[in-house]
Structures are given as structure tokens and as C-alpha cells.
Amino acid sequence: MKKILIASILFFLTLASYAQNFNFGAITYDDYEFDKKKLDSNANAVVLKEFGTTSIQQDESTGHLEVIFEHHVKIKIYNKEGFKEANIVIPMYKDDSREETISELKASTFNLESGGFVETIMDKKAVFTENRSRYTRLTKFTLPNLKEGSIIEYSYRLRSPNLFNYKTWEFQGDIPKVVSEYLAYIPGIYNYNVSLRGFQKLTDQKSEINKECLRLSGAAIDCSKMTYIMKNIPAFIEEDNMTAPSNFKSAIYFELAEVQNLTGGKTSYTKTWKDVDYELVSDKNIGAQMKRKDVFKDLISVITKDAADDLSKAQTIYNYIKKQIKWDNYYGIQSSDNIKKSLESRSGSAADINLSLIAALSAANLDAEAVILSTRENGTINKLYPVVSEFNYLVAKVNIGDKSYLLDATEPLLPFGLLPLRCINDQGRVINLKKPSYWIDLKANQKTITNYILNGKLTADGKIIGTLTTLTQGYAAYNKRKEILRYSSPEEYVEKLDERLTRIKILEHKIIDLDSVENVLTEKYEVEFSINDGSKDQFYFSPFFISAITKNPFNLNERTYPVDLGAASDERIIINVALPSKYELVEKPKDLAIGLPNAGGKYLLQTKLDDSTISMSQILQFNNAVYQPEEYLYLKEFYSKIIQNQKSEFLLKKAN
């Protein structure tokens, strides 16, 4: 479980360690000869030293306060796989009126040549920026003259107008670190909630008073000087089936709680949910848009004219919004302008679309609410105190009878009541126009279900011909529909599929309910494929050619964060192949029945030869959407047994 430390920045700890920066370019032979085995013998690169400092200073030209962040790092590269550590990306916040900027950027590569270190300075022309989203800009550069054994070093200063989000410091990264040090200067008029997250512990920390660090309106202000040090830090290894790495990396976070005004009094930023509810409901781009039933006043009777009950009304309105407004791929919890404009332009952000959905449902006299949440890649919400900036997405909730349905109309291929997987992340906060807000679990209400059925026969010339039927539901159907519709037609999709299947030839195809997302997606293929080479009297045949498991997705010795599949799943494969004459079964895959602890899932395999028909039945079930770190080794062993068993084949010999 995540370890979270909440401390006042004024809490004084007396320890012996002090963080300090190091001189740029002071490369030593100890740096060059550092033995990575001290940390991780498999490491491709190691951070030798890392130092950061953040302070709040006054801009002399504007008089405005700003956050100043300085970062300095030195990295040893061991092999070509470690070269990627020289590709640096620095994210920066921006909006219409404010943006973060970078200055004093230095970057060099050091190589040992003829007994001395030669520095290659990065050309400033190698630095470029990229607009990643409406609120994020990236500064990118790559260090030059990389060789196996190089040491790279870079430093920069970032200026930010955003005092609310004091700079987060990540002690843990994708490569091991010898030492990571962070120094935070916080003026006494500011009080931040400080959170240490992750599984690695601080080696040292210290708090002391730094006199007159800032002067405002002629008043000298003291600072709390906070020092945090972590040593011998293992790399954070990302695997599949996880939410945002920021949920689990060891890092220190700062959230502005309170400001002491120089003229007296305090401004509190750590609010209650009652305060937040009032702000959101009163917000012209959230609550005011939820109330815009007038936008749909003349439309709603036409939209719902054939709906027999409230559920049918909700489904009809949901489908209407999905078709009417195209998502522009922007997230957010606020309408970018207003929902009337989005409806007219037929384009909008996730908030525009789902606030339109809420207003339309309300116009039909249905009980609709908003749910604000943090997407999987954005991280989980700290529930100890409300911080609205942590939420980055908004969906709708409609209550009909004793059931509630979570809806996101940004994805035309999702059925009613199934949220996109990006939204399945811990809990969301339900915002009601008249009642207090509350938490709700964000769970997939459908399993990911896939069934494969092959009925075929073996011909005299050693080919299997037959019908392969695939049935998908839930996220499996959504993903398959999305894949098919990337092509200009289903025929082109099948053509490309046929090209990818090296041993299987598709002769005929039929795809049913491609556009009817509430129904099971059915694919039927008339197929032909050759079995393994062999004589007509004896041959090998592997039944594991459909959805074969060849690679274990879990390879760590230990995983400190959950395995998050997003949804429970059920996959079934049935194969029946009629043989042209009598055969004896000499060898076959071992029947297998294995399960995960606490009924967490199972794998069942049965194979047999009966009345000249060879058959296989396989079931793979995961009954939980999330598995805890202590269940990781069970999952790893579970997959290992399946993979080992799927290496076996049928050996059939013609009967005398």
C-alpha cells in the first residue's frame, strides 16, 4: 500500500545531512568507473548525482511572485540501450495568459580519451519545443557524441507563475540512482501540505530556518529550508496493466494549503468538499452548463419520441449526443466555452460533450449528475483534502429506478453504461446541483468477453478447412470495432488480417453488428490452413493457434504496485476438427486445471480424440479487475504454467 506522509512545512527535524549542488563538468574517474552492480547489475545507465532546488522569488521586472526550479543531473551510460537516457523531455505548463519558461540550459557529454575527459557541449540549436496539449508544452533535446561509457550532464532553470503547484520531485525514475537530493525554500507566509508517496524511504531529511529569503512590500520574510535526500534508489520498472506510474514512484508532492496575507488575515486553499461543491455548481463552465436544459427544450421531445420508458429515453439521448458532437480529444472538467456552441459546431472537449449529455438528460426529466475524475494516466486522487486541479475529466451519471449508469459520450463505439478504460481509475466525485457531493467507485460494469469457435475438417491433402466464429463483448468488442473501423471498409480490414495470418487463409467473411454497439460483435470466417509438416500416416497438430500465449506479461521478481486490468475478463476457445479416417492419439497437450488464490481466476484445458474428431476446450478467466502486489507472483506462475503447457502438440497416427 502507498505510504503517504502528511507533514507541516514548519515541522522541524534535526538531522546531520545537508543537500548541496555539485559543480557542472567536474567529472572524476570514480564517476567513470562506477560499478553498477552496487545498484543493479542489469542497469543500462545510472544516475550518479541528482540535485534540485525550488524557491519562491519575486520577478524584478513585473513584481509578480514565481516558482523557480533548478535541476542538475549526471548520468553514466553503460551501453547502447542506455543511450535513450540522453533524450531529455521537460514538460512545462501553459495557458492563455501564463506559461512556464526554461533558461540557463546546459548539456554536455563527457568521454574518456587518451587518459582525460573530453567534453562535447550540446549545440543550443538542438533544443526544440513541442505543444503536447492545450496546457502542456515540452522542451526536448538529445545530448551529443554518445558512446558506451559516456557520462552525460545537464542542468536548467524553470520559472513558473503557478504558486499553487510547488514543484514535485521524483526521487525514483526508470534507471537506478546513487543519490537524489532536493532542497525546498518555502516563505513563512506560505503553508503547503507535503506528501511523500511511494515505497522507498528517505535516507535523510532536515528542516531549518533561512533568514530573510524574500522581501515583499518592504517586509523581510523568513523561509523554511527543507532538505530531502534519498540514496541507492532502485529503478521503477513499468509493466503492462498499471495506472499512472506517478501513483507508485517515490516522490515528494506539495499542495498549497494557506497563505498569510501581509495586510493581515489568511487565505485558505485547503477547502472542504462543501466549499468545492459550491464553487463547481456555481462555475459558469460546470454547474451553469449542467443547468442548460433550455438548449434541448425544443429537441428533447423529438429525440425521445419513440422511447417507451426512462431507460430507453436515457439510451436514446446518449446515442444522440454521441452522434451529434465529435470529441476533439481534449480532456478537462470545464466546458471550453458553452454547450450550446459545442452542439452547434458539432465538436467539443470531453467536458463539453458530457455536460451536454447531463443537460439533455435533465431536460428529459431524468436524474442526471456530473462525475469528475482523474484518468488512469493522470494518477489517483489524494482524498485527504480536496484539490480540484487533480481532476482532469468529467463524465455523466444518470439514476433510473434503483440503478445508476456512468456515461461518456465521447466514444461512439462504447455501449450505454460502459466507460472508456481511461476513466476506470479508483473513484470519482459525484457533483449534484442540489445535494452534497460524494465518492463513487469507477468500475467496468461489463466483463471483457471473447469466444472463439472453430469447426473444421482435415482434408486428404493435409489442410484444415472450416468456419472460425469470433464473438466479443465489453472492451473486447470496443477494441475490435475500433480496429476494424480504422480501415476504409470491413473488406480492407479482412484483407489486411489475411496478410498478417501466415498459415491461415481467409476464403469468406461476414461481420455482424459492427455498428450496433449494444450487441455482441460477431465475425465469421471460412478459413483454410495447413497443419505441421508430416506424413499422411502420422502428423503433429498444435491446437494453440488462436490467441496463443507465448510471452509472460509478468517478469519482475517483485512488483510493488497493483496489476490493474481495468475489467474482469473471460476468454473461451473451442476447436473441433473432423479427421478423414481413423487415427490414434499418440501424444496430446496435458489437460490442465489451475486457479488463482481467492477465486481470482482460472485456466481450464481439455483435449481429446473422440469418434474421429479431435477437440479442444480452453477457458481463461480473470475474475478481478485489480490484483494486489502480494498476488503478483501467483499471476506470474499462473502464466508460466499456461505457456509451458501450450508448447505441446497433438501427435496423431493413422490406425491400422
Automatic annotation (TrEMBL):
Keywords: Signal. Residues 302-380 form the Transglutaminase-like domain. Residues 1-19 form the signal peptide. Pfam families: Transglut_core (PF01841). This is DUF3857 domain-containing protein. It comes from Pedobacter frigidisoli.
